[in-house]
Amino acid sequence: AVEKKVAKGKVGEKVGLPCCHEIPSTESLRNYRVYWQKNITEVVLAYAEGEKISSNERFDNRTQLNDRNLTLWISPVEILDNGPYQCIVQHLKVLQNSVVPNIVCDEPVTLYITADFSEPSVTAEVITSSCEFDEVMLRCSSHGGFPKPQIFGVLNSRAVVWNATWVSESSNSPYNVTGNMQLNLTEDTNFTCSVEYNGFAKSTSLLLSR
């Protein structure tokens, strides 16, 4: 299986998408046509014989092409840039006074965008109280991040499961996440809520006193 190329970046950063071809030092971009596409159908940037022949309003002023290794630079990246891209390179050869394009390579690369979530906000509300225990509703929420996160809870080093809900306008929009949990508190308890996404995590701890 062909190893899939991957690029990663955080919202606001500069990210380079690697292409499958490097132009040898004996030639220049003028000998090539280069197409960078997103989702196969959307042309991000295209060059033919050294001249830009196509650009995309959403990517205008945010993209650059390296004229040697054909890396597509996007700066600053947005959540909407998340997804699959393709680099298509054609070598232009002159045969009997006509230019014949020959496909050199055509390879996908996937861009994974991350947006940081807010520090989790943790609240504890006592619903009922008795001599034996307090019945407490715990809530943890975090917002504005990408991609869809996981939410974890730990009570005195013991993992607990949230009743979690996620809200997002679309698959390429920021997510808000909220976790609720009801528990019976019999002693002082240290509680931590963690939101994890794309290898990153944000955590908040709270001491619940009985």
TrEMBL record:
Metal-binding keyword on record: no
Coiled coil: none
Keywords from the UniProt entry: Cell membrane, Disulfide bond, Glycoprotein, Immunoglobulin domain, Membrane, Receptor, Signal, Transmembrane, Transmembrane helix
InterPro entries: CD80_C2-set (IPR013162), Ig-like_dom (IPR007110), Ig-like_dom_sf (IPR036179), Ig-like_fold (IPR013783), Ig_V-set (IPR013106), T-cell_Activation_Regulation (IPR051713)
Residues covered by the Ig-like domain: 12-100, 120-209
Location within or outside the cell: Cell membrane
PROSITE patterns per UniProt: IG_LIKE
Main location: membrane
Record membrane topology: Single-pass type I membrane protein
GO cellular component, one term: external side of plasma membrane
Keyword Protease: no
Gene Ontology terms: biological process: cell surface receptor signaling pathway; cellular response to lipopolysaccharide; immune response; negative regulation of T cell proliferation; positive regulation of T cell proliferation; T cell costimulation
Annotated protein name in UniProt: CD80 protein
Record organism: Nothoprocta pentlandii
